[in-house]
Records
---
Amino acid sequence: MKGKLVIVMVGLPARGKSTMARKLGRTLEMDGVRVRIFNNGELRRKLDTDFSTSSSEFFSPANVQGKEMRERISQLNIEQAQAFLQEGGEVAVIDASNVTRERRRNIDAAFPALPMLYVECVNADEEALEANLERKAGLKEFRHLSREKALESFVRRIHYYESIYEPLDEEPNRILVDSFDSCILQERISEVLPYYDRIRDIITTRVVRNLYLVRHGETFYNREDRIGGDSDLTDRGQDQANALAEHFATIRIPIIFTSNHKRTLQTATPIAERQQPCSIIALPEFNEINAGVCEHMTYEQVRRQMPEVARERGPNKYRYVYPEGEGYATMEERVHRGLKKVFFLNNYDENIMIVGHRAVNRMILSSFLSRQEAEIPFIYMPQDRYYHIQIDPHKRIFELIPYRSVATAGIGW
Ligand code: F6P
């Protein structure tokens, strides 16, 4: 259903509002809807020449000047949204914390004839929130502060917002979203809203703009066909990491997600060094399958010394759990949790890279492909190419791309 709509984001800082706003905006745009996002934080940073608005005190409810400036910024964005809608725009997304009723009443009053949809974002996952705070503390607006001070300042800013927070309750069209789990927790819609079914779909559907799923380079254990462990890259593995760095030098990757194992960090490091700037976030959820009593053994040793493992695992690889370790099936939950963290921590518009392991990458890939359980542990996961994944309501792309640079292409293996 066509028409005009104002979407108002609501939520404390670092709750995934902007990511959700961009996901809504970009997807509706692909459907042919004229959408624009009006982000108060971006406007504030544009107007701020001396970092005065990044200090936590700027956000104190007791700071009269700070409050005035924040309301002025909100007003400017409201006016731009009004102009956009008058000039043929269809959906305006007001992306700001909008945590007080007073602020929301002002927004309502500015669009008296238009339907309004309030989208409140919450995130109950403490770990994801913490990781998001860490990421925010590294943003440009805090570059004049140490990491510690930036974090402290951002946490204080959130406390100020918490002290005045009034959850949605009287707005006739409101939806409460868990932005970490991409699910709708509550909704109350009192009129027929344009695009509403589509909006529900977008909120709950995973959209992947560009995900580069890379397996770490060759390790000493790989060379000996050993299972698990935490071994280093070989020279060839290092060479692969350098070739990846070269390959991705012109593709913007702001964050690389790895496991805690050295081999993924060593693969990610040269890639990150070629990017400006790029942070590496190690997630334990992406650690390789724990092979329990078989860790450090070669596959041949397992066949000889523990024939029952080889016998039982072979025909039932997905469900099989290593004694004192894991199986593909038991890894599923943690890997999916890792993926949720990735989507929560990554800005919606940015490319994503994950440097993982053979079994973990199979699980990641299988969460996008609908594969039979039995096929998952056999998905091809080479070390000389990576998967490029794109998923949106219009397309699903999975390509396996070789990355070795011309200089190293001669090394066969
Ligand atoms: O051999 C490398 C490795 O990552 C091991 O650490 C891991 O146990 C294995 O691959 C997973 O692959 P598969 O399930 O096929 O044994």
---
Amino acid sequence: MQKNNLMDKVVSLSKRRGFIFQSSEIYGGLGSSWDYGPFGVELKNNVKAAWWKAVVHHRDDVVGLDAAIFMHPKTWEASGHIETFHDILVDCRKCNERLRKDHIVAGKCPSCGASDFTEEQAFNSMLKTNLGAVESKDNICYLRPETAQGIFVNFKNILDSAHRKPPFGIAQIGKSFRNEITAGNFTFRMREFEQMEIEYFTKPDDAQACYEEWINLRLQWYKDLGLREENLQLRKHADDELAHYAAGCTDIEYQFPFGWSELEGIANRTDYDLKQHSEHSGQDLRYFDQPNNERYYPYVIEPSGGVDRATLAFLVDAYHEEEVNGKTRVVLKFNKALAPIKVAILPLLKKNSDIVALAKNIKQDLQKNMVCVYDDSAAIGKLYRRQDEVGTCYCVTVDVESLEDKQVTVRERDSMQQERISIDKLKEYLTNQLSN
Ligand code: GAP
């Protein structure tokens, strides 16, 4: 499939089937803002749940946090964002497009191809608002541009309350906001997006080993959830690309239809943040190592991923077209843990009230344990295709024989193989299949 064609197909399927919609579409839409529809929100929640499970619940050394979006304005002075969180912009003199300088390829404007630009100017990407009834410079508050700072300002709270000592990590999922200048590429670059970030605190001497370990762990996570290996690569940042706080950074990149692009960055933030917050708050954020009677600032390794980018990569990677009986079958081959719907219950004859009642009963029972849908609004062939298009793992068909032999047909999404399963064993069967 042509790459651009693939992206168009994913965007179109996302809208048609309710994964992702343009924000405020009835008013003409809002740039770089997207809404997740019924299947999209399930997929995105599953991505977040899989991440949380892997980095918090399946480890002994990471705890969770959910910090507020609004933070004391001094946070952003300390973190360096007020001074350095800038995009360098130029205007194209020919087409007047405002561009990020680092998005200009080979000295040419990506819109019109001209090479005549205005002087560079710095533009801070943080979004501001005012808190309280009066709009004044004294109550300016920023919408956080990264979730990380909520973790650093809670470092001491967590040390004290959770009795942690390095090495340990704090994980958080939450919204971040950036006034991105260059929009586009669907949900890849948004102004309001979600991050999944870990700040892993370690002894300075162990930081390099820890950095390498997290790069491998995070890359493996994407592979385990089904992203094809040939679509993943690591890219080490050159020194002049590094963020102001980083001593090293490696991106996990995915081969999107629009090119290799960053899914997640793993950075060595050194002791920059804890030192800065100590200085600006007057609180000592060093860790006291009692046995060695030593106080030190831990180094921080930060795996920082985007929920929306990961969701988009899983969606693109899952998209398949196959020829079946002379027709094209579109199927989203999601990993089972990510699939928005696990089981669809489909009555073969919607006019037969006994079949419909049995199918609805089966759904009532299964939905206590797995995400299910019931659909009787078309012929069975069409119902299967609809479920394939949203990546439903199993279809359960209830037919006339089911009323007699108390069995149903279970169809697996990728192989399309069908099996008769006894209704009283159905939940156990599906639970086993879904956990494989
Ligand atoms: N705390 C470090 C940090 O924020 P970043 O590389 O700026 O680092 C981390 O962002 C991740 O957040 C990126 O790898 C990407 O997945 C996601 N991200 C950043 N900006 C984004 C945007 N405008 N839209 C969607 N996701 C974004």
